[in-house]
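Late entry, written up from scratch paper. The run itself happened at the end of the previous shift, but nothing got recorded in the book at the time, so transcribing now.
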Amino acid sequence: MEALISFVKDHAENQLLPWRLQVEATGRFGATLAQVEMAALEQGILLARYQRNRQTLTVNDQLTLFKSCVAVIGCGGLGGYVVEELARLGVGRIVVIDPDVFEEHNLNRQLFSSPGNLGTAKVAAAAIRINEINPAVTLIPLQTAFSAQNGAELIKGCQVAVDALDSIQVRLELSGVCTTMDIPLVHGAIAGWFGHVTTQFPGDDTLQKIYGSRSAGKGVEQTLGNPSFTPAVVASLEVAEVCKLLLGQGEPLKGRQLVIDLLSMEMNIIAITDSYKEKE
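Output as recorded:
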């Protein structure tokens, strides 16, 4: 490992380590790309792929992201964009949970879908895609349905969970598991031109307040459908929330719901917990 560290320090260019040198280091020292990235970041050297991040995120921030683990529950319209953006951001470990395979109606909006992989497991397609765009990231594909019974085991070791589901019942089960596991949950939902995002912290009952007694069904998206742009917008907002949570920066949507109307290009914040209403 000392030889790898010396190589990284000696060959960095303007405190950046280019891709070609990352690859060279794996061959020369028998290291993985993840080990090379960790060695560079621990020495204060940024991977060249992240150089456009560094006016916003420090090298220390990138190291924190790379050491983090995020669970994404659902790998369809929202989940595909969430997974790709987390990988491009530099989150080092991503657990992706989804039981489904791609069908033709997914092709209008789901990032990892294509005619060639119809019938392919969504999590398998995600693993292939992430290995192509950022192979230093470890993606764990779990082709299984999330439930109250298996949820704790599935997201064990993750710092944040991201809701990219389309079932109210499973969302509420995920909410309960996150409360039990004491981890924050970033929730997003989409339907037609509309969407919303919020973050539930342990001890809050945010999703219960949003969905109330509705414990069944797939929500209004079954009626309105989803065009290609709505999941991309809402997923990006979810990833921004995840980034803030992992880095402890900014003001997350705790006790607040960001409501998006792309038809009129309006965004509004609604207070949804008593604690936040008291601040207003």
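The chain has a mean pLDDT of 93.
(Scratch paper discarded after transcription.)
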